[in-house]
Amino acid sequence: MLLFETISLYCLLANWNIPQANLNKIVLDMEIAVYPNPVLKTKAEPIEEIDSEICQIAEEMLDTLYDACGVGLAAPQVGLSIRLVVLDVTGEKTGERVFINPYIAEERGEILEEEGCLSFPDVMGKIIRSQYVKVIAYNLKGEKLEIEAEGLLSRAWQHEIDHLNGCLFIDKMTPASTIASKPKLKELELSYQNNKAGVS
Ligand code: CO
To answer: HSE on the CB side for 181, CA within 13 Å?
Structure first.
């Protein structure tokens, strides 16, 4: 991590141009974008080149994910509209955990379960998701991955790929969960407005 921090500091001091047009800043201290931050509703752009910048962002996103005790995090949730997801449903910090330009190639079955989202503190809701998905993605070496998922992993994949498309879990909740989550969403909206206005 020290290496990445050193690189990012150097980049900042040298005012390097970021090759990818949609990246307009170097992220030093990532913060999770909370609803109703508009970045969460923005469709993310494909990553065209896996460069050191992308590797650095992926490392920082993994740190942010573990700090928040989450199972998955999509780049728009840290304010970056690029198609990058970090995922670790076991929390074991091993294996492929960084995924570039993922998409669902196959899905089948339906299952209703409760889920939450790091961008929606204290909000939970029931959502019907596909029981099985096959995801195609690339790792940081540019190798193509084919991932078959069921259970929590399948749900997490669908949730994170929705994030890349600007689709949020509140958009898919059952009517009962939508009603139940309304007061908390109102609270988050108010808190977001107050933060923007500089009210603590
Ligand atoms: Co989420």
So the answer is: 26
Task: Tell me how crowded residue 126 is: count the other CB atoms within 10 A of its CB.
Answer: 16
Amino acid at 189: E
User: Ligand 1 centre and the CA of 159: distance in Å?
Assistant: 6
Q: What distance in angstroms lies between residue 149's CA and the mean position of ligand 1's atoms?
A: 18
Six-digit token pair at 185? 């969403």
**Which residues does the annotation mark as catalytic?**
160
Q: What's the chain's Rg over C-alpha atoms?
A: 17
Cα 113 to averaged position of ligand 1 atoms, centre (Å): 15
d(CA 142, CA 162): 22
pTM exceeds 0.90: no
Residues 6+ apart with CB under 8 A from 188: 34, 35, 36, 120, 121, 123
Tens of pLDDT, residues 45-73:
999 999 999 999 999 999 999 999 999 99
Q: Which domains does the chain show, CATH number per domain? A: 2-196 (3.90.45.10)
Q: Where are the beta strands (DSSP E) in the chain?
A: 72-74, 84-87, 98-108, 111-116, 124-129, 132-138, 144-150
